[in-house]
Amino acid sequence: MKDLAPFYANVQSHYDLSDEFFALFLDPTRTYSCAYWDKPGYTLEQAQLAKIDLALGKCDLRPGMTLLDIGCGWGSTMLRAMDRYGVDVIGLTLSRNQFDYVSAQLDQRRGGPRGEVRLQGWEEFDQKVDRIVTVGAFEHFRAERYPDFFDFAYRTLPDDGTMLLHTIVVYGPDHLRANGLRWTRSDLAFMRFIRDAIFPGGQLPLPTGTALRGVREYAQEAGFTVSRIQALQAHYAKTLDHWAGALKRERDRAIALSDEQTYLTYITYLAGCADQFRAGRLDVMQFTCTKNASMPV
């Protein structure tokens, strides 16, 4: 994949805004993806750890394995995998801030499984690993790279390999019509705002499809069996509500760390996305992709 350059500039324009700014609304683990309230009384931190456990629990991890975390963020999934499953972990991020933060976290650890973070995209990774987890990174890959990504994952894993892919998805026309939903002009304007002001270069995949392929079909074409798809739509709406509420409470500090326009942009983004998930146009799903050893490598 050396001919494919990772989208460093697009990712850094968002994630390298300021670690301190993100810490104002994220939980203490700095997990920046959908939480999972499998128990209603959970705090945001507890729900985030439950989501990480949900994802890792689908990876069939065993001590001594090496897990590749693509889009490792601020390292919460890496650390959880090392502590709970006894696996070595390689984390990839395109964010300089996240790389520095995770490096410092790993430097403080002594003994136990090995952890390594790299300022590197999957396009530049050329090692074999036992399992792959990717949470909230697929939205940055873009559709023209989906076949390359799934081919990469299939080649990187052993015959019994598993990849857990957690991503936001957008529903297609058939699903929207079947559920009495549609995109209004204001909805489409909001999605353009997200693309231009928050996640430049980002693109949301379909979950499944026929005429237009979804995540499931791309995975299957590469040789994976998609053994489970779990939707977490309501959980992400609740997560976004928590984030928006926390940022509003920290308004003055947020403006001091950035400026008023940045604060307003993020409030609009978080609250507006929660509305889209509640309306049913967007979802977030975990795809459990297991390798079919009969397929050619």
Describe this structure in words.
The chain is built from 12 helices and 7 strands. Helix 6 packs across helix 9 and helix 8 packs across helix 12. Strand 2, helix 5 and strand 3 form a beta-alpha-beta unit. The two termini are 15 Å apart. The protein has one domain: Rossmann fold, CATH 3.40.50.150. A 7-stranded mixed sheet has the order 3-2-1-4-5-7-6. By secondary structure, the protein is α/β, with parallel strands linked by helices. It is globular.
- Second CATH tier, the architecture: 3-Layer(aba) Sandwich
User: Can you summarize the main beta sheet?
Assistant: 7 strands, mixed
The CATH superfamily appears as Vaccinia Virus protein VP39
Question: Could you give the order of strands across the largest sheet?
Answer: 3-2-1-4-5-7-6
Shape: globular
Count of discrete alpha- or pi-helical segments spanning 4 or more residues: 12
| Percentage of β-strand residues | 15-25%
Structural class assignment: alpha/beta
Evaluate the radius of gyration. Answer: 19 Å
Number of domains: 1
Spans of 5+ residues with little confidence (pLDDT < 50)? Answer: none
Q: Considering DSSP H and I runs of 4 or more, what fraction of the residues is helical?
A: 40-55%
Span from first to last CA? 15 Å
- Under CATH, the topology can be stated as Rossmann fold
Q: What is the helix/strand order?
A: HHHEHEHEEHEHHHEHHHE
Overall mean pLDDT? 93
Number of strands: 7
